[in-house]
Design a protein that fits this description.
Helices cover 43% and strands 14% of the residues. The strands form two sheets. The protein has an eight-stranded mixed β-sheet with strand order 5-6-4-7-3-8-9-10, with helices on both faces. Helix 2 (18-47) packs parallel to helix 10 and helix 4 crosses helix 15. The protein contains 16 helices and ten strands. It has helices spanning 5-8, 18-47, 58-61, 88-101, 118-121, 132-136, 142-145, 171-184, 198-205, 218-234, 236-240, 258-262, 269-276, 289-296, 308-320, 337-342, and strands spanning 2-3, 16-17, 75-80, 106-110, 147-148, 155-158, 187-191, 209-214, 248-256, 280-285. The chain is an alpha/beta fold and 343 residues long. The model is unreliable at 5-9, 18-42, 44-48 and 63-70 (pLDDT under 50). The longest helix is centred in the first third of the chain and has 30 residues, at 18-47. A hairpin with a 6-residue loop joins strand 5 and strand 6 (155-158).
Length: 343
């Protein structure tokens, strides 16, 4: 296995074995993880110093009371990635819409305080009156801040504040909001901001499931691997330890171009799996329709299975719900004679 030359600055055709890049790659992740301990000290101390309001993770993994009786809270799913611009918000919008279209009551929450975009992807930007921080500051009730989608009756959104900063988030406040949402909705989808700052840490802390989004490029995979480490060691489930299942982490690869992967102009699926070691829940092909749908305020999954990107997101939702489906759009489409001849 090799890394194409353009990833490491070599001459064209002089590819570096992937095994040579892994030690350097892993060492950089380890150094970053050590430095992150200083950044997260305050967050960790505050998260473990109060009684929890959100029910124990076992309540969502198993039905209370056994024998099919009792109730369970909704699952909290964090859509995250270390690198910005990989398609987290696009994926969160389509993922939440897909869950709602299958009859599951779903709320999608924007955690990107100060830089919200989820409302634009869902076509709700003109309907935002109250936001996440208003709820945290008790300036309105949660029901006042929730916005119901016009297309899917089972879908609601909680917008991020556009005027406050990420320091407005607290462990206690976020937990209280997620606790109330999980009592009402089957799935609470958290659209995490990029990086490892306050918004991303609060989003991943209470997650039951984490969908790690990455592009087929080395820098994106490196940042995604760092986030995998954070989820594995800094989440509430990790703090509880062996008494509960760890956060279920899966990998969503976006903007995948099979032809470029074959030409070694980007990482292949095998390369990404070897670097990150997570099961792939979906592969979203590169598509111009993503930008069009964003500008129209329509999640791309609504275009239907005939559209490659929409079909890939639909398959991803089905896999998350436990259905087995083969990956599509991972091999180059055959080029017709006329296209090869006339270009």
């Amino acid at each position: 296995k090799t890394i194409p030359a353009f990833f490491w600055g070599g001459r064209k055709g002089c590819n570096m074995p992937i095994t040579m890049t892994l030690p350097l790659y892993r060492s950089s992740v380890m150094l970053a993880s050590r430095s992150s301990k200083i950044v997260n000290t305050r967050f960790l101390s505050s998260s473990s110093s109060h009684p929890f309001v959100l029910s124990h993770p076992k309540d969502v993994d198993t039905i209370i009371g056994g024998g099919g009786s009792g109730t369970k809270r909704g699952r909290i799913v964090c859509v995250t990635s270390g690198k910005g611009g990989v398609g987290k918000t696009t994926s969160a919008a389509s993922f939440a819409t897909g869950l709602a279209s299958r009859g599951h009551k779903t709320c999608v929450v924007d955690f990107d305080i100060g830089l919200r975009n989820l409302d634009i992807h869902l076509g709700m930007e003109r309907r935002v009156i109250f936001d996440f921080v208003n709820v945290l500051m008790e300036e309105c009730s949660l029901s006042q801040a929730l916005i119901k989608d016009k297309r899917e009756k089972h879908l609601s959104m909680l917008a991020a504040s556009q005027t406050r900063d990420k320091e407005s988030l607290t462990v206690e406040g976020v937990e209280k909001v997620l606790s109330n949402l999980s009592k009402t909705f089957d799935y609470v989808v958290l659209d995490s901001p990029a990086g490892i700052e306050s918004g991303a840490r609060h989003a991943m802390y209470f997650a039951d499931d984490a969908i790690i989004v990455t592009n087929p490029e080395l820098s994106s995979c490196r940042d995604a691997d760092k986030m995998v480490g954070f989820v594995s060691s800094r989440s509430r489930r990790a703090e509880i330890g062996d008494d509960v299942d760890p956060v279920s982490q899966t990998l969503l690869i976006t903007r995948y171009d099979a032809q470029r992967a074959v030409a070694e102009e980007c990482l292949s699926l095998n390369d990404i799996e070897e670097l990150l070691g997570l099961p792939i829940i979906g592969v979203i092909p590169e598509s111009k329709d993503v930008l069009t749908c964003t500008n129209l305020g329509t999640p791309i999954i609504t275009l239907g299975d005939d559209n490659p990107a929409a079909g890939a997101y639909s398959d991803m939702v089905d896999r998350f719900l436990g259905e087995e489906k083969d990956l599509r759009f991972i091999t180059p489409e055959p080029v017709s004679f006329f296209k090869r001849f006339f270009g």
